[in-house]
């Protein structure tokens, strides 16, 4: 599992555990699994997919931003975020 935090200008939008995270990086779709190599990447507007323990897939739309992966922690700093598919 990875610990995920989605942060927007007003504060933490969502925080929890996920089996995997998929983000819309500028260079293409980036899939993040446990023990992922550390990375920082710019994000474009698009969908973030979270495979959480209690749901097959939760999706949110972001307006761009950055993602930082360090060990099993994923921080998504987004311009804005809205749920597309319930968490």
SSE map:
Blueprint: E1 2-8, E2 11-18, E3 20-25, E4 28-32, E5 39-52, E6 55-70, E7 73-78, E8 81-85
Parallel strand pairs: 1-7
Antiparallel strand pairs: 1-2, 3-4, 3-5, 5-6, 6-7, 6-8
What does the model show?
It is a single chain. The chain has 87 residues and is mainly β. The protein has one domain (2-78): Sandwich (ATP Synthase, domain 1). The protein is built from no helices and 8 strands. It has strands at 2-8, 11-18, 20-25, 28-32, 39-52, 55-70, 73-78, 81-85. Strands 1, 2, 3, 4, 5, 6, 7 and 8 form an 8-stranded mixed sheet that branches. It is globular, with a radius of gyration of 11 Å.
Describe, in short, the structure shown:
The protein is mainly β and 87 residues long.
